[in-house]
Amino acid sequence: MSGERNMDVWNVLRPSKWPGAPPWMSFSTLSDLEVCPRRWALSLAEYPHVWNESGYPRPLRPAAIEGTVVHLSLQRVMAALVDRGCPSLSHESASGALRELGGYTAIVMSSLKRALQPYEGNPRAAAVLEGIRHRFAARVPELRSRVQRFLVRIDPECGTGKSAKTMSHPESESRRRLLHGSYGEVELRAGYMGWHGIVDLLTIASTRCEIRDFKTGEAKEEHEYQLQVYALLWARDRDLNPDGRLADRLVLSYDEGDVSVRAPSEKELRQLEHALATRTAQALADLQVDPPEARPTRENCAYCAVRHLCEDYWPWHAREGPSNESARTGFGDVQIRLSGQHGPTSWDGMVELGPGLRKGRPILLRTGNHVFDHQPGQRVRLLNVYMNIPGEEPDDDDRPDPTVVATMGASSEAFFLTT
After folding, report:
1. pLDDT band per the 50, 70, 90 thresholds, residue 35
2. Spatial strand order in the sheet of 249-254
3. Domain definitions of the chain by residue range
4. Is pLDDT of 194 > 80?
5. Selection from 85, 71, 360, 293 nearest residue 199 by Cα
6. How many CB atoms lie within 10 A of CB 344?
7. How many CA atoms lie within 13 A of 65 on its CB side?
8. What φ, ψ does residue 245 adopt, rounded to 5°?
9. Beta strands at 379-388 and 329-343: parallel, antiparallel or unpaired
10. At residue 9, does pLDDT exceed 80?
């Protein structure tokens, strides 16, 4: 673990229990399983030696928090607008709805509190949580503007039946037909498929049936496929959509604007359903291996939160080192064995597995403001350390290799190997 001043160092241990198959398949779950079954399993396994919650503690990533804050803010505003029958953000009734919520600043601050709440008991986030909270509090005006940019492009449909507020989460009560109106955060289920999905905004009107998904990051090709999956789930949800009405408008809503996605026909939905069934069966079969297969690639592993637990990642990472001199300075991961203390905040050691580094190469670990107890002979996996790898390794085995310098920063983490 890491912190700005003090640091807990955890051990790398095997999970006490692997997770079972997911009770419901979703677009994100299937994507995660296909990218790397090992990562999915390690993330959701049981670690009673670490904490009492399920899964491995997640690191607190500012980009993910920002996206969550924007999403939560949009949900609150949309629920208020629809519940009051506001046809648009510019309608005079919208001002009253926003005042009841305390205005955009209060909405964003409340959403920030909700976004950070799951990390309150997370030992992996404890050292940086307060700093992240203050950093985002100072960015409220920017976040407020982002929320407003999304909202001005939305044309909600005023409900003619049960209010949108009480129908926002149909899974919380008996699931029944959705009447005309706009609904936020609707869970769609295709029970016979074993699939579900959460739609950001579903609008049902006499002239349109629209599914809109808010995206706070960069546009990706997979986003269009995800919307088509939602169209399938809507068409197959016999509780909320017993008539099987097809969505005729799919919209990806980004910061910079909306992108329309072609709505699939019934024939295309059947083809999509068959493809998902095949992919689902294969993904579930991949989970039957102990441990599930690891699929290390640069893209898959770059932001993996459990790569320090993956025994396949480290030898792969050592082989996939910097390919040129310019890449030999920067943040990376390295596994080392400590040999002795070099100074008050530094240790000497040897590389065991590092990016393009020969085993046994000397390394100087600078811990900076991190305070923790090391012992000579201990083996440590370091994540997100700043590494300076000087020069080329000599061809002459009698000449010593130049020392690698690894410096720990606020986002660095350290994990002891027990074997």
Report:
1. very high
2. 181-190, 195-204, 209-214, 249-254, 257-261
3. 10-151, 164-283, 298-417
4. yes
5. 71
6. 6
7. 26
8. -65, 135
9. antiparallel
10. no
**What is the rounded distance in angstroms from the CA atom of residue 304 to the CA atom of residue 299?**
9
Q: Residue 413: name the closest of 59, 149, 53 by CA.
A: 59
Average pLDDT, rounded, for the chain: 88
**7: Cα separation from own chain's centroid:** 24
How far is it, in rounded angstroms, from Cα 21 to Cα 41? 9
Supply the pTM of this predicted model: 0.87
SS3 string of 271-298?
Answer: HHHHHHHHHHHHHHHHCCCCCCCCCCCH
Summarize the confidence of residues 358-386 as an average pLDDT: 87
Dihedral, CA of residue 141, residue 144, residue 146 and residue 147, to nearest 10? 180
CATH topology of domain 298-417: OB fold (Dihydrolipoamide Acetyltransferase, E2P) (2.40.50)
Measured at the CA of 18, the angle between CA 412 and CA 60, to 5 degrees, comes to 25
CA dist., res. 240 & res. 244, Å (int): 9
Residue 189 burial (10 A CB sphere; 0-12, 13-18, 19+): buried
The DSSP result for 91-155, as a single string, is SHHHHHHHHHTTHHHHHHHHHHHHHHGGGTT-TTTTTTHHHHHHHHHTTHHHHHHHHHHHHTT--
> What is the per-residue pLDDT for 44?
97
